[in-house]
Write a structure and sequence with these properties.
The chain is of the alpha+beta class and 406 residues long. The chain has nine helices and 17 strands.
């Protein structure tokens, strides 16, 4: 009897072990990402904290470092660093509570070109946890703003990783490009599938724009200054009155557009912090809604020349590339005139002009007639070719273009 009881107990124990093992493995929790994260965190009980200063990170675009937080408002701005860890946390600050529901900041965390976080911020302070268990060795991390500066800012606070190896800033890249533009450069509506939908920062995505893709293809550092609806002489209008408030001159010298910064010195951009090899100006689409007479087009030429003077003063070593896309390039001949006048008045030959072809008819549009992600890829290919030609030959002359009026 005792022998039978022992045998039954043994069978029961075996079955119990088998059942528990089956439950663990079938649930997928034994080697899940969360389980591994917990294991590594327990193995390293004290996370190592870093402030996002330039000892540990490389700023992307125009940023302001204040009280341990690196603030950014412009499209694509943020930080980049390398690290070797199984996970990290970053404390994100923002002014989201001051914004309407459609104007809150959207940010992304990109690891080795994989987008691991891409959301609209809903709180003024929130912690973001990023698992790196699927990566081996050192990884490249970028934290950038996907939406534009007109509506919001965000700040990158303490970065905590679970390894004692220091995070380090990425090395400078061989080419630096500054982009100056409007909603096309900001990625307006690029993620909105309904072309008849309404604007919200949730559908702005700088990482899908021609600017971001061009910089990526050229392995270039970038900085972007872009405002929806802005122009050179006038912002976009629906009537006949000039919109002189929405011009690039209002903000080109700004480091940040966060209204909470009372210290004027912090808001002024120091151009020595980013000395571009190229400045790409993509403005004139919104001016076209106002410049419908010869007198107004002549005024546009004068203002464009003033912009070129400012850009050259701020960026003495850059090659200036003036483009206008086939979204509406009715002012392209005016831009060509401004460029030729600039050359004649200054003797400066490090400048060119070209239509940038997004091939809208084939590649499609999103809300308010803006170029789709596919159209932006086409524009990036076009611009990459232009810049590569300049890098290889020292100059670029566009082929004769056909003006498209829309």
């Amino acid at each position: 009897m005792k022998t039978i009881s022992k045998a039954l107990i043994s069978v029961f124990v075996v079955l119990l072990i088998a059942f528990v093992g089956y439950c663990i493995f079938s649930s997928g929790n034994l080697f899940s990402e969360d389980t591994l994260d917990n294991f590594y965190q327990n193995r390293t009980p004290h996370l190592v904290s870093y402030e996002p200063d330039e000892q540990y990170v490389r700023p992307i675009g125009r940023t302001v470092f204040k009280d341990g937080i690196r603030w950014a408002s412009f499209s694509g701005s943020g930080i980049e660093f390398n690290c070797m860890a199984t996970h990290f946390d970053v404390l994100i600050h923002s002014d989201t509570s001051l914004q309407t529901s459609s104007h809150k900041p959207r940010i992304a965390v990109i690891v080795n070109d994989d987008v691991l976080f891409d959301e609209v911020l809903t709180e003024d302070e929130q912690n973001i946890h990023i698992s790196l268990v699927d990566y081996s060795g050192s990884v490249n991390v970028r934290i950038i703003k996907q939406s534009e500066s007109m509506f919001s800012s965000f700040g990158i606070g303490t970065i905590r990783i679970n390894e004692k190896r220091k995070i380090r800033p990425t090395s400078d890249k061989p080419v630096k490009i500054e982009f100056i533009g409007d909603s096309i450069t900001a990625g307006y509506g690029i993620d909105e599938e309904n072309r008849y939908g309404y604007f919200t920062t949730a559908t702005e995505n700088f990482s899908k724009t021609y600017a971001y893709l061009t910089a990526k293809e050229l392995n270039a550092q970038y900085s972007a200054v872009a405002f929806s609806g802005y122009g050179v002489l006038s912002g976009a209008v629906s009537g006949g009155q000039i919109n002189s408030e929405a011009t690039i001159f209002k903000h080109y010298d700004k480091a940040i557009t966060n209204k909470s910064f009372e210290n004027e010195e912090l808001t002024v951009w120091d151009n020595t912090k980013f000395s571009p090899d190229f400045v790409v100006i993509n403005l004139g689409t919104n001016d076209a809604t106002y410049c419908r007479t010869n007198e107004r087009r002549n005024a546009f030429v004068s203002e464009y020349e003033k912009l070129l003077d400012i850009v050259r003063e701020k960026n003495p070593n850059a090659y200036i590339v003036c483009v206008l896309t086939d979204v509406n390039n009715s002012l392209f001949t005016s831009i060509e005139t401004a460029v030729e006048n600039f050359k004649e008045n200054t003797g400066d030959e490090r400048i060119t002009s070209s239509i940038l072809y997004f091939n809208m008819a084939e590649n499609g549009t999103v809300i308010d007639g803006h170029p789709s992600a596919l159209a932006n890829q086409s524009g990036a290919e076009n611009l990459t070719e232009i810049i590569r030609t300049i890098l290889e030959t020292g100059t670029y002359t566009a082929e004769e273009s056909t003006t498209i009026v829309q």
